[in-house]
Specification:
37% of the residues lie in helices and 27% in strands. By secondary structure, it is of the alpha/beta class. The protein has two domains: 2-65, no CATH class; 79-227, Metalloproteases ("zincins"), catalytic domain (Zincin-like), CATH 3.30.2010.10.
């Protein structure tokens, strides 16, 4: 792996069989990585990095200043969120199939005796995933009609730096699992954002015009999402 040094910023460079350059700034400390086509020489990549230096610094500052949720231990009376609302976790140890349910202001997590923290997290994450799988198709169906596009498939996965992605050629969108913890308006906004990429690849004036047309309030929702605390990050760089 090559490295580019721009002042006090170290940039990892990975070259592989891809068409375009991809620049990423990773939480929690702002590690920078460029994935570039194999054919591109290091000097060209350096020039590209210099052109993006202002953006890199802005993203690093945003990540380092972002409010973070505390690490979760998955114990009773711990705070957890679902669709923007705070719930207290109640852990129920019992034989039988593990399950999750909401009762009033509690998320009840039923687990087997001697379940580990990792296992409890896995069960709760699976529940979050299913809730998104129930919610998202309604948004897709609604905006497919107004945008006159078709989403061939959607998926949910853990992402380190993005709320969503869109594979334009395949007509597939991916959503960050963490969205299940955010207000439902934020879930809708990310779905719309990724679907608009089926109409316009870049975040240019045309993209913004489509967002304004199909979701006029998107800018305020984006600001709300950016203000919310981000998840505690157990991995580091």
């Amino acid at each position: 792996m090559e490295h580019i040094q721009l002042g006090d910023i170290d940039i990892e460079v990975v070259q592989k069989d891809i068409k375009n350059v991809h620049l990423s700034v990773y939480p929690p400390r702002g590690r920078v990585r460029i994935a570039a086509p194999s054919r591109m020489n290091l000097d060209t990549i350096r020039i590209y990095a210099i052109s993006k230096l202002g953006w890199i610094k802005k993203q690093q500052t945003k990540l380092r200043e972002a409010a973070r949720e505390p690490a979760r231990e998955y114990l009773t009376k711990e705070s957890h969120y679902y669709l923007g609302k705070r719930y207290l976790l109640k852990v129920i140890v019992a034989k039988g199939t593990p399950k999750v349910s909401i009762r009033h202001n509690r998320i009840e997590l039923q687990v087997l005796p001697k379940s580990s923290k990792a296992k409890r997290k896995e069960i709760l994450d699976a529940w979050y995933r299913e809730r998104l799988r129930e919610l998202v198709p309604n948004f897709i169906k609604e905006y497919e009609k107004s945008m006159k596009v078709q989403v061939a498939e959607f998926g949910i996965r853990k992402m380190k730096t993005k709320w969503g992605t869109c594979n334009i050629q395949a007509g597939r969108i991916w959503l960050n699992l963490e969205l299940a913890k955010k207000p439902i308006s934020c879930v809708e906004y990310i779905v719309v954002h990724e679907m608009v990429h089926l109409l316009e690849r870049s975040h240019n004036a045309r993209f913004i015009a489509y967002m304004d047309k199909h979701m006029p309030q998107w800018k305020s929702i984006k600001q709300e999402l950016n203000r919310l605390p981000v998840s505690h990050v157990d991995w580091g760089y």
